[in-house]
Design goal:
116 residues, mainly alpha, 3 helices, elongated
C-alpha cells in the first residue's frame, strides 16, 4: 500500500507545472522569468493569473475587514451589557460586606462590652 502511494505521489509531482515561473521580485510577464523566455502567451497568462489572484486577495481582505467592523459593534454592546450586570453584582456584594461588618461589630460589642 505504501509503495502504491509513493508511486502516485511521484506521478503527481512529475505532472505539476509551476503556475508562475518568474522570480517573486519581478513583475509577472516582465520578460526576465523562465516562463516568458519560453515565449508566447505564458507571460500574459502569468500576468493574468497574478492580477486575478491579487483581486481575489483584495476582496478577501475587504470582506474580512467588513466582518470585523460589524462584529466589533456587537462585541462592544455585549461588553457593556456584561459590565452593567457585573456592576450590579459588585454593588450587591459591597452592600452585603458592609452589612456583615456591621453585624460583626455588633457581635464584638455584645460579647466584649455587653452592649446590645
Amino acid at each position: 500500500m505504501d509503495d502504491y502511494m509513493d508511486s502516485l505521489v511521484k506521478e503527481v509531482e512529475g505532472n505539476i507545472k509551476p503556475i508562475r515561473a518568474e522570480k517573486l521580485s519581478e513583475e509577472p510577464g516582465s520578460g526576465n522569468g523562465a516562463a516568458s523566455s519560453a515565449g508566447g502567451n505564458e507571460g500574459e497568462a502569468g500576468k493574468d493569473i497574478y492580477s486575478h489572484v491579487h483581486r481575489e486577495n483584495v476582496k478577501c481582505y475587504r470582506n474580512t475587514q467588513a466582518v470585523i467592523k460589524e462584529s466589533t459593534g456587537s462585541i462592544k454592546q455585549e461588553f457593556k451589557e456584561g459590565q452593567s450586570g457585573i456592576r450590579g453584582l459588585l454593588t450587591m456584594i459591597l452592600l452585603l460586606l458592609i452589612l456583615n461588618l456591621g453585624a460583626t461589630a455588633v457581635l464584638i460589642l455584645h460579647s466584649v462590652f455587653g452592649y446590645f
